[in-house]
Each structure stands twice: as structure tokens, then as C-alpha cells.
Design a protein that fits this description.
There is one protein chain. The protein is 66% helix and 0% strand. By secondary structure, the protein is mainly α. It has a single domain (2-67, 75-82, 91-154), classed as Ferritin, core subunit, four-helix bundle (Ferritin). The protein is globular.
Amino acid sequence: MSKDILAEFLAHSMELESEARERYLELAQAMRAHNNVEVAEFFGRMAEESRLHLSEVEEIARAYKLPELKPWEFVWPEEEPPETTSYEAVHYRMNLQEAMLLALDNERAAEKFYAAYAESSVCAETKRFAAQFAAEEASHGAQLVAKLGALSQRGAVHHREEDDAPHMPE
């Protein structure tokens, strides 16, 4: 019974990190296409962080038979996994500070998800891993807060202002 609980938790964790990585890669590619290089590079680094965490979860999961969950069988607090940036929250001309704030929201959502799992699980191993993952997400969030502080020292550039006047038909 407790192995099943842990296996389901690990399946959720793998999906969470996989979806986060995929979304960050998509966003990096989109930002590159719009010549928003600084934000593209940041999203690329976030994709790499997700890949590293996914590798960690995969290593743990090798010892268990994970359930093959269908997309609708995953239980998330929202429609998508907690660490997945909403497409609606992104703008092709967003600045680095805005991108970092989105990533910080993602880290905090993932931390909250893992902490809730640690709090509610009846399985001691699941509690331990969930608490460990929550602490890792909290650490990532703290790193982003520190980087945001350093970024605010240099000042944020607002990319959303359009360079050209709108073209109106006569």
C-alpha cells in the first residue's frame, strides 16, 4: 500500500518536472524567435533546472513500479502541473524581471504542492521525499529572490513598449 502511494507521488513528480521543462523550452524558443535573448536564456536555464530535478526523481523512481497515469488521472491544484508557466502570463516582449517573477511563482507553487503532499500523505517515505522536494523548490525560490534583488539594482528594461506607431488605414 505505501509503495503504491510513493509510486503515485513519484509519477506526479516526474510529470510535474517534465511539463515544467517542456514549457520552459517552448518559452525559450519563442523568446529567441522574437529576439528577446536575455529572457530566452533565462527560460533555457530554468528548463535545465527542471531537467536536473527530473533526473533526480527518475533516479529515485527506478526502484519502484510507477503507475501509467493518463493525463486526466493526474491530480493538480490547477489545470496544469504547479510548475508550468501559463501561456497567458507570457508576453514576447517581457523583461527578465517579469520572467523571473513568473518562475518564482512556479517555484512557490511547486513547493506548496510538495509540502501539501508531505503534510497529507499517510506514507512515511512519501512524506520524506515530498518534504525533500518542497525544500528544494524553496531553495530555488530563494535563489530567484536573490537574483531578483540583484536585478533590481541594475534596473529593469521595459520591452513591452512598441517601437513603431500603429498603422491605421485611412
